[in-house]
Design a protein that fits this description.
Blueprint lengths: L2 H10 L9 H20 E2 L4 E2 L2 E4 L5 E4 L3 H12 L3 H8 L3 H11 L7 H13 L5 H10 L9 H11 L3 H6 L1 H13 L1 E2 L4 E2 L15 E3 H18 L2 H16 L10 E3 L5 E3 L3 E2 H19 L4 H12 L16 E2 L4 E2 L2 E4 L5 H12 L8 H4 L2 E5 L1 E2 L1 H10 L4 H6 L1
Antiparallel strand pairs: 1-2, 3-4, 3-15, 5-6, 7-8, 8-9, 10-13, 11-12, 13-14
Helix pairs in contact: 1-2, 2-4, 2-17, 3-5, 3-6, 3-17, 5-6, 6-7, 6-8, 8-10, 8-11, 10-11, 11-12, 11-13, 13-14, 13-17
Length: 397
C-alpha cells in the first residue's frame, strides 16, 4: 500500500475506536474507502466530481468525465458528516464552491432528477441560493410530467430536508407523495418504473429495477415522519417487506423485478451500491419512523459485499474482491459473463409473454462472477448518507 493511501486511511479512521460489533467494523471500513474514493474523484479544476474512476490495463486508477448529478449526491453524503470531513476530502471551501456551481447551472438543467438532487444538496449544504433549484424543479412539473419514479422520489426527499421548505411547499410535497403512492402496486409490493399516469415501454413496462423500490421507500418514510401520512408509510413498509422477502440467500439485493408479482425477473448484476448504501439507506429510513428492525437484512447485504459467493473459487476461497484497499475504491458490480445485457433482455421478454416464464439455463451458460472495475461518486455519497443513521443499528444490537 503506498504512502498516499496510508495517509488517506488514517484520516478516514481517525479518532475511531475499534468497534466490537462486526457490522460496525464493516461500516468503518466501507466509510474509509468512501472518503478515500471521493478524495480521489474530485476534480478541483472543474469544481465537480468525475463521472467515474476506472481501472486501466496497468491496474492504475484513471478518472473519466464529470457529472453534476454525481456531484450533488456526493455533496449530500458529505453534508451528513462533520464539517471538517469535507475539508479533509475536498479542501477548504471546496464543498460550498461545488454546490454553488451546481446551483449556478441549474436553470439549464432539463432533467428533473438533476434539479431535485441539486435542491437536496443545496439544502443539505445550507446554501442561500437553494431557491433557484426549487424554481427549476417546479418548472419541470414533477406532479404531472413524464418523469421516472426514481426522479419523482428524489423530488419528495429533497423537499423533506428543510423544515421551513416543508411548510412552504406542503401542497407540492403532498401532490408528489400522492403520485408516488398511486404508482405503488399493493398486490406485488413494488413501485412502477414509471408513474402510473405515464405510459411505459410495451416490452419492458412490467419491469422495475431495485432503484424503483429504494428511493420511494426512503422518500415516503421521510414524508411520513414530517406529516404522519399513513398511506405513505404503508406503501413504503409493504415495499420494504417485499424487498427483504426476495433478498438472495447470500444477502444479494437483486436487480430486475416484476411489478405484477413482486418476483425477481433477473438477479444480475448485483451492484455494490445496493448492498452497502441504497438498501441500508431505505431500510433505516423506515426503521427510524416505525421502530421496525431490518438489521438482519442489512447485515446480510453488507456481508455479501465483503465476501461475494460469486467470486469464490472451487474450494470456497475468495479469488478477488469488490473492495480495493490499494486503490481506495469499491468496484461497481458483479455481473454475468455474457455479451452485453443479454440475460436481462431475454428474461424481460420471456416474462412479458407470461409472468411465470423464464429463459432456462442462463445461470449455467452465463455464470456470474465478472467484476466491473469502475467506481462512481454517487455510490460513495449514498454510502456516507446511509450510515449517518447507523446509531439505529447500535441501539438494537
Amino acid at each position: 500500500m503506498d504512502r498516499y493511501r496510508k495517509i488517506e486511511l488514517a484520516l478516514a479512521t481517525r479518532d475511531r475506536p475499534t468497534p466490537a460489533d462486526p457490522l460496525d467494523a464493516a461500516i468503518d471500513r466501507l466509510r474509509s474507502l468512501a472518503l478515500c474514493g471521493l478524495k480521489r474523484m474530485y476534480c478541483r479544476e472543474q469544481g465537480l466530481f468525475a463521472f467515474r474512476a476506472r481501472r486501466d490495463s496497468n491496474g492504475a486508477l484513471i478518472l473519466e468525465g464529470s457529472s453534476p448529478r454525481y456531484t450533488a449526491i456526493a455533496l449530500i453524503g458529505l453534508a451528513s458528516e462533520q464539517p471538517e470531513v469535507s475539508v479533509e476530502v475536498l479542501g477548504e471551501g471546496e464543498a460550498a464552491r461545488a454546490c454553488r456551481r451546481l446551483i449556478d447551472g441549474v436553470e439549464q438543467v432539463s432533467n428533473l432528477g438533476d434539479a431535485a438532487l441539486t435542491l437536496w444538496a443545496a439544502l443539505a449544504m445550507k446554501d442561500e441560493a437553494a431557491s433557484k433549484a426549487l424554481d427549476r424543479l417546479v418548472e419541470l412539473r414533477p406532479v404531472e410530467g413524464a418523469h421516472p419514479t426514481v426522479e419523482v422520489a428524489w423530488c419528495l426527499a429533497a423537499l423533506m430536508v428543510d423544515a421551513t421548505l416543508r411548510q412552504e411547499q406542503s401542497d407540492l410535497a403532498r401532490q408528489i407523495a400522492d403520485r408516488l403512492i398511486r404508482s405503488f402496486v399493493p398486490r406485488s409490493g413494488v413501485f412502477r418504473h414509471w408513474p402510473v399516469d405515464v405510459r411505459g415501454s410495451v416490452l419492458r413496462g412490467h419491469v422495475a429495477c431495485f432503484a424503483d423500490l429504494v428511493y420511494p421507500i426512503q422518500a415516503l418514510a421521510h414524508y411520513h415522519a414530517a406529516t404522519g401520512d399513513e398511506a405513505a408509510i404503508q406503501a413504503a413498509r409493504r415495499c420494504a417487506e417485499q424487498m427483504c422477502a426476495m433478498q438472495g440467500a447470500e444477502g444479494q439485493w437483486w436487480w430486475h423485478w416484476d411489478l405484477r408479482t413482486g418476483r425477481v425477473i433477473e438477479p444480475y448484476p448485483v451492484y455494490a451500491v445496493h448492498q452497502d448504501a441504497m438498501a441500508p439507506m431505505a431500510l433505516l429510513a423506515i426503521q427510524e419512523v416505525t421502530g421496525q428492525t431490518y438489521r438482519s437484512a442489512i447485515e446480510r447485504g453488507v456481508r455479501w459485499l465483503l465476501d461475494p459467493m460469486e467470486l469464490r473459487g472451487p474450494t470456497g476461497e475468495a479469488t478477488c474482491s469488490l473492495l480495493d484497499e490499494s486503490l481506495g475504491v469499491i468496484w461497481r458490480k458483479v455481473a454475468r459473463h455474457e455479451p452485453g445485457k443479454f440475460s436481462r433482455t431475454a428474461q424481460a421478454l420471456a416474462s412479458r409473454i407470461h409472468r411465470g416464464l423464464r429463459v432456462p439455463g442462463l445461470g449455467w451458460v452465463f455464470r456470474p462472477g465478472r467484476i466491473d472495475y469502475e467506481c462512481r461518486p454517487y455510490h460513495l455519497g449514498w454510502l456516507l448518507l446511509a450510515w449517518s443513521n447507523r446509531k439505529l443499528l447500535r441501539d438494537e444490537s
